[in-house]
Amino acid sequence: MVAPLIAGAIALATEFGPGLVRMLAGDKAGDVAEKVSSVAREVTGLASDDEALALVRADPVKAAELRQRLAELEIDLERAYLADRQDARRRDVAIVTAGRYNWRADIMLALAFTSFIAIVWMTWQARLDMPDMVFAFLNMAAGALLKMIGDAFQFEFGSSRGSKEKDQLIRR
Predict the structure, then answer these.
(1) CB neighbours (10 Å) of residue 90?
(2) At a CB cut-off of 8 Å and minimum separation 6, what does 141 contact?
(3) Are 31 and 6 a contacting pair, CB within 8 Å?
(4) In angstroms, rounded to a whole number, what is the distance separating the alpha carbons of residues 127 and 41?
(5) What is the pLDDT of residues 117-166, one digit of tens each?
(6) Which of 76, 71, 97 is nearest to 17 (CA)?
(7) CA distance 71 to 37
(8) Are 112 and 152 in contact (CB under 8 A)?
(9) Max CA-CA distance within the chain?
(10) What is the pLDDT of residues 71-92, one digit of tens each?
């Protein structure tokens, strides 16, 4: 089961590789958790995350080694993420270069905007008669759509200053 693996990896990453915590949520959480746990097992020689965490907390040398190895893992994961994003940008450039138009991206963004507007309108119209669970679900869906829209803008217009600084750090 993935949940205990993720829980152990979060405990390790929170103390010794905070940059990895955000990667322990989402599509690849299980893969990232396995990599974090694997690094902890290699550094400590122990079989479980709990044992590894206890040993690393007690041994400053092992703690420093784990921090270093988790920082290297974070850089590797960031490189993979950036390469994936770059491949997607290359795809868009290839479509335009071939003289075609990328309708898929426009349709995807239009659907996200339309869905967000529809959810806001439904929530407003039924605000007094809506059960709390439905309201919570619609809020969650609206938040997910806003994230998708934000990701689309970030893809099209570049990323944040912090991300650019991280890109420069990775290139060194």
Answers:
(1) 11
(2) 115, 119
(3) no
(4) 51
(5) 999 998 888 877 888 888 889 999 999 999 999 888 887 776 665 556 65
(6) 71
(7) 14
(8) yes
(9) 62
(10) 999 888 888 877 777 777 788 7
